[in-house]
Design a protein that fits this description.
The chain is of the alpha/beta class. It has a single domain, classed as Alpha/beta knot. Helices cover about 35% and strands about 25% of the residues. It has helices at about 20-30, 50-60, 70-75, 90-105, 120-125, 140-150, 180; strands at about 5-10, 35-40, 65, 80-90, 110, 125-130, 165, 175. The strands form two sheets. Strands 3-2-1-5-4-6 form a six-stranded parallel sheet, sandwiched between helices. Strands 7-8 form a two-stranded antiparallel ribbon. Helix 1 packs parallel to helix 2 (about 50-60) and helix 1 (about 20-30) packs parallel to helix 6 (about 140-150). The chain is globular and about 50 Å long. The two termini are about 25 Å apart. The structure holds S-adenosylmethionine (SAM). S-adenosylmethionine (SAM) binds near residues 137 and 138.
């Protein structure tokens, strides 16, 4: 989001035939809730088009990137690395420190897995963070983490260059095209 240090989400791995929607939803959730970019790895690299389509329609800025070497990416990351895992420390106990580092200007990389996450990642992470110590989903854990990081402020962000804007309504649906409002 505007004015913040770099906030990237790394989607580690992707199981073809099983994770298509999950990988797309990791990207859409990252975009909607305040990250600047998503980095897709492995077989998930092909899932970027839908996320880019949504950014073109509903605005940005938000970037979709890919990597062939997530381990190198983590090694070279010059900031905080949060790995979301059910085995980590409770988000409510560590989020204050993570937020302080982020607000001080440290870039933040949030890593979510697909299948089994290699042990190296647990070592490379600055923080292994759990959203409850119960198994659930990378999309849910990412959403809760980002909302806790921003303390809800991401819900009021502005979007640039949207071709379409949803007008909030108590009933029904209203979507305005940018060329109609110009
Ligand atoms: N068994 C896998 C493992 O060994 O990591 C878990 C796979 S889980 C379906 C996919 C991803 O969801 C995990 O890699 C993690 O990023 C996220 N996840 C699931 N439950 C979580 C929790 N309670 N807290 C934080 N992240 C979680």
């Amino acid at each position: 989001m505007k004015g913040q240090p770099d906030l990237a989400v790394l989607r580690l791995g992707h199981r073809p035939g099983r994770d298509e929607r999950m990988t797309t939803h990791v990207g859409l959730t990252a975009r909607a809730l305040g990250a600047d970019r998503v980095i897709l790895s492995g077989e998930g690299k092909s899932q970027g088009d839908t996320i880019e389509d949504i950014t073109e329609r509903f605005g940005g800025p938000f970037a979709v990137e890919t990597t062939d070497s997530p381990v190198d990416l983590l090694e070279e990351w010059g900031g905080t690395i949060v790995h979301l895992t059910m085995y980590g420390l409770p988000v409510q106990d560590v989020i204050g420190e993570v937020r302080e580092e982020f607000e001080r200007g440290d870039p933040l990389l949030v890593v979510v897995g697909a299948g089994k996450v290699p042990w190296d990642i647990y070592d490379q992470a600055t923080d292994n963070v759990a959203v409850t110590n119960q198994p659930h989903s990378e999309v849910a854990s990412l959403a809760v983490f980002l909302d806790r990081l921003f303390e809800g402020k991401e819900l009021d962000r502005e979007w640039a260059d949207a071709a379409q804007t949803v007008v909030p309504k108590a009933e029904g649906k209203l979507v305005e095209d940018a060329d109609e409002t110009e």
